[in-house]
Amino acid sequence: MRRPSMRTVTALAVAAVFGLAALPAESATAATSRAALPACPLSALAKAQHPVQITAWHALTQANATALQAATDQFNSSQSQVHVTLVNQPQYNDTQEKFVAGLSTGDLPDVAQIQDTGLQQMIDTHAILPVQSCINADHYSSQLSDFIPRTLSYWTVKGVLYGMPFNVSNPVFFYNKTAFQKAGLDPNSPPQTLNQVMVDAQKLKASGAVTQAGYGLKTDPSDLEEWVAKAGEAYVNNGNGRQARATTAIFDATAAKQVFAWMSKMVSSGLAVVNNDQNTEAYNNLLGIGNGNQAMTIDSSATLGTITQLLNSGQYPNVNLGVGAMPGPSGPGGVLVGGAAFYIVNKSSPAKQAAAWEYLKFLDSPQTQATFGAATGYVPIRKSSVTLPAMQQLWAKIPGYKVAYDQLVTGPSNTATAGPVIGDYQGVRDAVRNAEEAMFSNGVKSNTALAQAVKNATAAIQAYNARVG
């Protein structure tokens, strides 16, 4: 089948993000896997006038943005062929929406940092050069054995690596060791199961070590994805959307039923306070630890750099922060890869595409990954990075920074831990969040709420597929 025209692709992409009607198109995943990959124009860089100027969009903030700028400055000064200008977008979702809108206006970067959940939509735009093309052309495959396998698995569909993983994170357990000591708990033994979280929350509240509740429960739908993956269960059908495009949500199995029941009991018994995961309230669970309202929560390891800055400033003298592995169901799985990847835009000139590849190789070099990880809390995705002084010194000083790395190299690399590939990922997450809120605010039974989440998530998936492919 012929590739759709640019006009059709634009309509499809805009429809995917903004919910407009569009004509059906062939799955880009299927088309790419059957045909030869597009060429990566490496030779164009040598023929171009130097330096080749490229623009990279990103959505990092605070300590993370500072670290990316430092890495980019180092790249720019290390050679004379390429110069990268960073352009910050407010949030990941803003970056993706602006990218899709740019398919019509022509306002596109040469490199775009897109969050993990945007994989299927980026494939469906037909506007990216798969990094697999450049890996093949540059004989870079030998380097891939040094990458944490799960970081490559996430952005690989049917043997094609589409985005270059860069800032990788996963959820960790944050707790206040000072409050644990006051409650008679071992400050060096954070809970490993959800049941133990409940037991510790009871002791924290009963002892007066917290002013509201033992646990800050953030309404982040990604946590459910992680718990399902830890249990070794798929989130959507068709091999988690990797054997074929996902059509149905299937996360209403054993793990999710246990998790929804646990969340419901934690909130109804006053052992957890609900924290919204959106907008200005997104960090209330962490601030709750700082002000003593609660003593435990789950959040991204990518917040560690900023948290460390705040703690070092002396604003929270009553917090001795502990970091542990994410408690949850046991099973033949593990945590998922979170964070983002950089995509090469195929609407740019051949020289700019080749320049983008040079930049991405630099960002994923062992030294850059070590330096960036030490400054932010993101997980270095190169195995050799963790042997370098930047990471070794950090882990020795603050062992909590090592937790996320250990989680990513623990457990198998399989369908569950590769993570789901979903077109309307936001719609699926909205369905889960709405179900949780109905359970917390309206007293909806946990099994009923979960069933509604799966039903609405499936509807979102199928509506996207009807528009796009």
Topology:
Elements (H helix, E strand, L loop, with lengths): L5 H13 L9 H7 L8 H5 L4 E7 L3 H17 L3 E7 L3 H14 L5 E5 L3 H7 L2 E2 L1 H7 L11 H6 L1 E2 L2 E2 L2 E6 L1 E6 H6 L11 H14 L7 E4 L2 H10 L6 H5 L12 H15 L3 E4 L8 H7 L5 E5 L3 H9 L8 E4 L13 E8 L4 H14 L2 H11 L12 H9 L5 H6 L6 H4 L6 H18 L3 H23 L1
Parallel strand pairs: 1-2, 1-3, 9-10, 9-11
Antiparallel strand pairs: 3-13, 4-13, 5-6, 7-13, 8-11, 8-12
Helix pairs in contact: 1-5, 1-6, 4-17, 13-22, 17-18, 21-22
Task: Give a nutshell description of this structure.
This protein has 469 residues and is α/β, with parallel strands linked by helices. It has helices spanning 6-18, 28-34, 43-47, 62-78, 92-105, 119-125, 131-137, 149-154, 177-182, 194-207, 221-230, 237-241, 254-268, 284-290, 304-312, 350-363, 366-376, 389-397, 403-408, 415-418, 425-442, 446-468, and strands at 52-58, 82-88, 111-115, 128-129, 156-157, 160-161, 164-169, 171-176, 215-218, 272-275, 296-300, 321-324, 338-345.
